[in-house]
Please model this.
Amino acid sequence: MGRKRIVYKCGFIDSCAMHGFNKRYSEVRATEIKSAMRYWWRAISLFLSEEELLEKEQELFGSTKQISPFTIYAKQRDEKYFIVVLEENKEGVELENYAALFELACILGGFGRGVRKESGNCFILEKLELGLDGNQDIEINRYKLKDQNDIVCRILELIREIQQWSLGKRSITVTKKINRDFKCKVITSGQCSNSYPSIEEIWIGNRKINIKILMNTVKKAKRDLEKNKKCQYKFKNIRYASPVYASSYPVLNEEGEFDLKLVIPIITFLSNTFLNKLDENIEEESQYENYKTEFRKKVFLR
Model:
């Protein structure tokens, strides 16, 4: 009997930021795709302890002691497109839930070394499900997101689906609101983890921005804020990965096709776990809030 597979045809919004042995050439790598899926699974989950988190993560993604329930294959077709295949490793695997994780990662970013610098983003063109009996079911319209509302609804749908799968009754309340100052829609999480980065807010812009202008804006914003002592996310000169992700997603033009030059900007703010390690962090919390506010201004209002 064959194995169930889900095949995606994906496109790059900008340059690929994944690399193999030869750092001079970019390539799509299944390991980095799976790493991004694990990262966002953690970011939308809430566990009572790190031990509980690790146990569930090993169950869903495998470890040195147990095989992963699913396998990822990836192949780059050309500079613009690549193929990703999700395949079950054993019967009864809920492959659609892993597919939801991959789709969420495509929207929020997370592929390759340049993700925090607004590069390495991708989007889904087509989805093909191959059942055990050989039947095919192609889904295309589902991924042709037209505007800000479509992106917001899709993110909410994916997060709730993934949480119900991995957390069950302990799913976190996720809501949306409108911020009129920035003309953005905001997805907020009811709870955040203190021990590992988890999503606090996802901001989705309401207007299309040229991708090159957006990339330059994000890079400049981060450079400028690093020099501003009132706007910080790391302290005491430590090495600390940014808890701010900037990504983007293309929407349809008047002809109903993707216009890769114009994208909707998306910013994801994660909980700053370093703040929880400080005895008194009032000043540092204020600096991080300032960082988030100024970063939003530079990206959305320009």
